[in-house]
UniProtKB/TrEMBL annotation:
SMART domains recorded: GGDEF
Lineage: Bacteria, Pseudomonadati, Pseudomonadota, Gammaproteobacteria, Oceanospirillales
Name the UniProt record assigns to this protein: diguanylate cyclase
The keyword tRNA processing is assigned to this record: no
Domain GGDEF: 645-779
CDD domains named in the record: GGDEF
Enzyme class: transferase
Any single Pfam family the record assigns to this protein: GGDEF
NCBIfam families reported for this sequence: GGDEF (TIGR00254)
Species this chain originates from: Halomonas litopenaei
Keyword Ribosomal protein recorded: no
Amino acid sequence: MLLLPPRSILAGLPSIGLAMFRCITLLVLALLWLPGSQVLAGELALNDDWQYRWGDSPRTPDGEFEWLTAAEGEWKSLEGIGNPPGRDGRDSLWLRRELPAGDWLQPALFVSSLNLVAEAYVDGQHVYRHGQLEGPDAGAFAGWTWHAIELPSPTQGKTLYLRLKSSYKDIGLWGKVVIMEQSRILPSILEATKGELVIALACLIVAALALVLILTQPERWRLGSLGLFSLAVGLMVLAESDASQLIVFAPLAWDYVAAIAYFSLPVAMALILEHWFPQIPRQGMRRLWLGLLAYAIIAPALAMLDVVSLPPTFPLFDLILLGALAYMARWLFRYRREFDSDQRLIVASYAIFAAIAITDMLVAHGLVGWISVPVHLGALAFIVAMIVISTRHYARSQRQLQRLNDHLEQEVAERTRQLESLAEQERQRALVLATEHHKTQRLASLIDTLQACTSLEEALCLTQRAMPEILEPMQGAFYRPQDQPDNMTLELFWPTTYRPPAWLDTTAIPPLRTRTEESLPALDDLLTISTRRPPSDPSAPSTADNLPHWIFPLDLTGPDRQHRRLGVICVVPDGPLVKRPQYWDRTRSFIELGVSRLALVLSSIALQEELSALSYRDDLTGLHNRRYFDELFAHETAISLRKKSPLAVVILDIDHFKKFNDRYGHAAGDTVLEGVGRMLANSFRDIDVVCRFGGEEFVVLLPGAEADDAHHRMQRMCHALASASFRHEGQSLGTVSVSCGIASFPATSDDPSCLLAMADSALYRAKHAGRARIALATPHEND
Ligand SMILES: Nc1nc2c(ncn2[C@@H]2O[C@H](COP(=O)(O)OP(=O)(O)OP(=O)(O)O)[C@@H](O)[C@H]2O)c(=O)[nH]1
């Protein structure tokens, strides 16, 4: 079917799918024909022996053309096949030629091209028409195409007439004019166009690839400009190829396609220069391709709207193209030294293409004789350049992509590390907070316990005991002063594996209250401190194992704002609290705060203790205490001596009070002490002073009283005591007895200051005599 003449083959098959199918089929056929089909047998060229006659033939009354039958008349011999001389502004031309003899079965005249519309007659019979020669559209452009004019067989003795019309500057036949078998036309066209078909298809594939890459790659304009050039070249080569009519027989449509593609070529070229040659000023190139694009759109559009004819748009465009090529060449020449290999390749392909395009232009305008210009070879040069550039570009992109991937992977890894580190920090922070909370609670509980302590020693003992629990998991030690306030001896350490130095000199450690960031010893300094050996014992072990230490002094602040160093806490900053440097300060501050609070509480206990020591009252019994007695005794004995007035001293001690305590408990003992004190206070005069001497001992000072008075009052009190039954928390404690010693001035001694010692001796005697009795001191009591 494909071997039929094209018009009859292709008429009525408009579908694009089918067109594609044909295109591929043609290509396959062309490739199959590639070897061994250079010369087609049976072709006979008709390039000479033509006759011509300007103008159009008048018609006979029957409507027949007179020139078809008229004898020689005006016919003149023509050299060649087109543009006979003497046109004289006429647009109609008749050509004729006697057909040669041949053994063709179905002969046809194959003409590569003719200008512009034509009819063919053989022996008066109309055999072919291209375009309109009659009516309102007479002479209208019908497209440039090859022509297959069926001839009758045999051809010998017959004359072929061609009636031509052209408003274009050329008129006549062009290219190949041969008689051949009709069945040979298709192979002949395929043979002639196989290279063009292959190149056109390659260009279109490159354009399609560029389109796909535009959608996926970032460099859209660069790829787009190449894609546009490929598309334009591909379409132009295809549209101008004789094979295009085999795909769709629509010469005019193909001419429009060719025109648009041809006009788009410099647009793509300028675009390529703009985006592939950063050296060249972009502004100028952009203006150039925008102008060319406008022409590529407007000129074919005006032709389609019949405002102008399509052929005249070519010469004008050729002029524009020359200008554009010159403009581009100027810039390329100026920056020729700066081009990289890709750019050089593009310039080379441009040069080849431009040379071919200009040659084609010259041929088209008749400035050189008609030759078949291999426009497709220019396209081939460009395609090869594009494939090389694209391959390199692709390889470069892949490398960049790989680098980008590597970079991204590194970044992801880095981010992951950062996140993990943040999570770890968060875990650390939570752990620190939880630990701090626990430690704060433990410290608060310690401080609560300390509030109940009456002696500093007891409080310090409790503090020491709680230290490991509060400071663990950090290793640490507690030092207390020995002979000198700043010479500290190891008192306690934890854990057992930690080996702190046995001594510390803390002279350089300022009290916490006066510390500032600057005054805080650096860790290295602390290390020096911690490992210093006492000068007294250079051989002493120093096993701090080069660990840096924090040292927190436990200083008591007195009412006079003076500090008394109670000890130092030494901590190795390690463990979860201080794993990260950012927690060092926090943890150190936390410990400092805790130590400060402890120091405050201990200071308060010490103060209470001191105050209590300074008091004249006994807290338990409410009686005067020994301190008061001592001062009063000194005072009263001095008065007695000076005035020679009597003075008696009674000293008494509860019997077996230890056993009592052991039996009923300390609190019950206190109840008894309170009761005895009360009874004593009630048993003596107001001017007598009853004091608690200490423990379960009481002393009474009776100014102006003799020993008898004192004895008498004591007897009464002992009777009362014997019948008094003490109770504690509902429990009966039974009775207690007291032993008593009495001495008086001047009866017992003429030195009142000896009375206390003598009364004490008498008490000793009373105890030894069996207790629960009163013993009067004799003048020789202490001998
Ligand atoms: N409950 C209580 N006991 C005290 C107080 N002061 C001292 N004691 C106790 O009094 C006891 C005195 O014991 P000792 O000195 O052995 O005398 P004792 O048991 O009374 O024996 P003799 O004096 O020899 O009869 C000790 O157990 C002290 O703990 C106090 O304020 N309250």
